[in-house]
Known about the structure:
Blueprint: E1 2-7, E2 13-19, H1 21-24, H2 30-44, H3 103-119, E3 123-126, H4 136-145, E4 151-155, H5 160-166, E5 172-176, H6 182-187, E6 190-194, H7 195-205
Parallel strand pairs: 1-3, 3-6, 4-5, 4-6
Antiparallel strand pairs: 1-2
Helix pairs in contact: 2-3, 4-5
Amino acid sequence: xxxxxxxxxxxxxxxxxxxxxxxxxxxxxxxxxxxxxxxxxxxxxxxxxxxxxxxxxxxxxxxxxxxxxxxxxxxxxxxxxxxxxxxxxxxxxxxxxxxxxxxxxxxxxxxxxxxxxxxxxxxxxxxxxxxxxxxxxxxxxxxxxxxxxxxxxxxxxxxxxxxxxxxxxxxxxxxxxxxxxxxxxxxxxxxxxxxxxxxxxxxxxx
Length: 206
């Protein structure tokens, strides 16, 4: 089991915590991690792009000039792709980019991402994260104390003071234990979580 230091909000070490190897010490599967990131980015795409082909553009029903004898190349319509105002060749149409990953694959990818944060010493565990009021400056100081400027902050329970205080800090995002995902874990330099959040993740994914 991996032992990590537990810090308080002032950045002082107040103890250690044993992390479960079933969640934070698995063999990293880069392929599944890659698939999970691709899946999330693809599922976020709207896929609403649309352009008209030559069959959909209005006009162009009449042949612009006769077939032979003009000296011009033969033309059948002024809405052919080579004409101004013509249709688009192989025009994009609305489509669904999303693809499905199995539950086991998703879990394995998430565990791999969490393990990579532990191995790279980019996981910071706090004994608790409580703010008396909504104040961005207070949240900035907490993150500075634990050397985590660009960070994903994982909470066990929704704390409005923490979420609202972190919302306006560039490069910082808050998440709950049931909303974490592979993309966010890898996107931010540091993964900051409370001790309760780490225990909750172990309980769900172990």
